[in-house]
Amino acid sequence: MIRAVVVDVDDTLCLTEAVCFDLENEVLAVLGREPMSRAVHLATWGEPLLDAMPVRSPGLDLGRFAAAYQHVLRRYVLDGRLDVVAPENLHTLDQLVRAGRTVMLLTSRTETEVEHMLAPDHALARRVSAVYHAGNTRFRKPDPRAFDELLAATGLDPQQCVYVGDSPGDARAAGGAGLHFVACLQSGVRSREDFEPRHVSAFIHAFPELVDVVGQLDAAGSRVG
Prior knowledge:
The structure is a single chain. By secondary structure, the protein is an alpha/beta fold. It has two domains: 4-15 and 84-224, HAD superfamily/HAD-like (Rossmann fold), CATH 3.40.50.1000; 17-78, DNA polymerase, domain 1 (Orthogonal Bundle). It is 41% helix and 11% strand. The protein is built from nine helices and six strands. It has helices at 17-30, 38-43, 49-56, 62-78, 87-98, 111-114, 148-154, 168-177, 210-224, and strands at residues 4-7, 102-106, 130-132, 161-165, 180-184, 202-204. It has a six-stranded parallel beta sheet, sandwiched between helices. Strand 2, helix 6 (111-114) and strand 3 form a beta-alpha-beta unit. Helix 1 (17-30) crosses helix 4 (62-78). The longest helix has 17 residues, at 62-78. It is globular, with a radius of gyration of 17 Å.
């Protein structure tokens, strides 16, 4: 039985790549640096921010960038420009919970980058039971050990879990850890051809399709059992 649905944040639960491109270029402007190109941003999308920024802006002082980034990030969140979870996506989480699935988030973001989503008054608070991020996990995707803490804390077998994400790195991490993986193509940043078939259980083109796909994976597992 599928007991847990684990959800990536960026371009899965929320559509964020285009907004993050603007946000990061605004921070670079604050620091007096040239903007990055969209092509470079797309090529490094899915990597932890501070791992990607030396490619996006060679020679960047990461300490200065991180400090300035926090200020701009807070403004984008307060202005409702970043991490907006669409109503239909919240409804999808509600459907999963009503079906008896535990919903968790797993992201490569730092704790500071997700702290606003951890607030007790956030829309996710009553829907998501746990959030795994760079502050409480030892490894990052695409390393399969990114799921170690989640699996240890829940006692779940990997085959009882589905991870839904948007990147080949998400797929490699989930597949390597033995989880089912659902690739979400809603952002349009990636296509089926970007993924290794052996790591992907299903593709969806919009997040709400996840409910039916998880049900199908559950039914297939029951028939095998």
